[in-house]
Amino acid sequence: MCGIIGYIGSRKTEEVLLDVLHKLEYRGYDSAGLSVIDKNKFNILKVSGKVNGLARLVNQEKSKKKFLSESGTGIAHTRWATHGAPTIENAHPHMDSTGQFIIVHNGIIENYASLKQHLKEKGRKCISETDSEVLVNLIAESYEDNLENAVVAALKKVQGTYGIIVQCLNEPKKLVVARLGSPIILGLGEKETLICSDPSAILSYTRKVMFLDDEDIAIITPENIETKNIQNVSVTREVSKIDWEPQAIQKSGYEHFMLKEIFEQPQTLKNTIRGRLDENRGTSVLSGLNTQPRELADIERIILAACGTSMLAGMVGEYYFEDLCDIPTEVEQAAEFRYRNPIVNSRTLAIAVSQSGETADTLAAVKEAKQKGAQVCGICNVIGSTIARECEKGIYLHAGPEIGVASTKAFTSQVTVLLMMALRLGRSHRLSRNVGVELVNSIKGIPKKVQEVLQTASAIEDVAKKYAHINNAFFIGRNYLYPVALEGALKLKEISYIHAEGYHAAELKHGPIALLDENVPVIALANNISGKEKIIGNINECRARKAPVIITATKGDDELRDIADDILWIPSVSEYITPILTAVALQLFAYYVAKERGCSIDQPRNLAKSVTVE
Ligand code: M6R
User: Fold this and answer.
1) Distance in angstroms (rounded) separating the CA atoms of residues 468 and 590
2) Ligand 1 pocket: which residues have CB below 6 Å?
3) Cα-Cα-Cα-Cα dihedral of 397, 398, 399, 403, to 10°?
4) pLDDT by residue (tens digit) across 546-576?
5) Which of 356, 387, 606 to mutate to test ligand 1, by most ligand atoms within 8 A of the CB atom?
6) Which of 105, 204, 236, 395 could share a disulfide with 288, CB 3.0–4.6 Å?
């Protein structure tokens, strides 16, 4: 989604802006722009397309001496189109019609049409199709002699979400920042401040960040940062240290971030597990759960709310909670949670799963669950993200920044955290110490087993090359591997643009089987877990329709060779761990198919890393 950066300091402003824009690219975008003040006017450069194009434009302008590079303040943006096509006119920053004010904006102004009409009647003309240009004109209209007051007055008229940075020619050394529902943080460097929508993008400048809350306003000058809320009450926001290393957002020799992140998993899973298992008591220690055993014993129902891959991790969690804790559990698409009016009470544990911690629908589900009195726990990767801060309980993944748009290492860490949570809750319900100890040992073994899957990468690549030409694919699974079938299909379609669908294996006969023929391969997850004998029946049904079959099978299960066109071998583990290992094999499969097809793997078309609008 859109990325925002603002800078006040003594470095060459356009260099900082371009550098951070490059680091924001992974989030997905289709146009980019920046602005610095030059000879008492905004010097704005924009492109439809990539940041490299913007950098070229800046250099051209500099060589013609048309671009001042040392202004000390500036703002920039990568735009993922919502209102209007990804054209230069619609790209940010946007100026008001008098040329005195400028804005970069993430989010959506829902009442922009009526505001635009109002502005038109007042003689303020918008050139672009964007809601953001409406907002900057509204700020201009409200201006008397102080930018922050104008911003507050304008925001009071607005319905929707925003993360904004605004600048005004009358007060050139000041940036005004505000947020509601769109993430924005302040990076506090040595005599410089960076304002950004994503902490990982500014790690090479500073690790000290201040997280703004909804309805906060920050007024930033070279000497000072003032924070208050939209009611004009002064507020103090905590400063945190982000412990991610700047090299975590480098490719480190890998061709793509996605490949790097797949191969990082033995380490990221170690980080997820570290210090969280108690072998002696056969349980896990999750301090962020922040709950006494008796309170855990009182939980009667669990709801997991999430989107995309995080929702599929939640579906694996549903099996864990029901199998290990005997607690009725359901998974809700987070957008549905808010509008469906689910039954929730104080004995409900609502778990929001989100890598970014910024997904708008998941955040809304958290707020709704809190409103209804549930206990709310966030499972997030990004430290200090909005969902993490909104939840009273929280468990971080510690997987490090995930840059590839297709989620990989976050999924395996999410599933691992859910398993550790189920272990903890289970031990406050019916789970025995002995089973708990066994589970602790299985969890400890995950990183090593994932490493074994990664060692089969070149065999998986060979299979992937063989099928890279296909137009359609089905993934089928049962039990713990049903959500993994959905995730395998999601991964393949996201990055290779092959039409891929995941089904419960039993569902095939209820319709999708009509599509099978020799051109539609079926990836059948037939590892050695309960339900395997049934899936063998389903595989035979596919073969009878001439569909090629790729099977994921437990190492040593040689009898499956007879019914498979190709096999991806998965180490033998307890069935609780199987989904993690199988997902890793399917990540590699999707990656190598997409690579063979020459796709843009880290930034697939139309996709954004973090979906911060409804
Ligand atoms: O940041 P979140 O985990 O909340 O994001 C949820 C989905 O947008 C995300 O998992 C998406 O489906 C990924 N592109 C999947 O690879």
Assistant:
1) 9
2) 307-310, 354-356, 359, 362, 405-407, 494, 607, 610-611
3) 100
4) 999 999 999 999 999 999 999 999 999 999 9
5) 356
6) 395
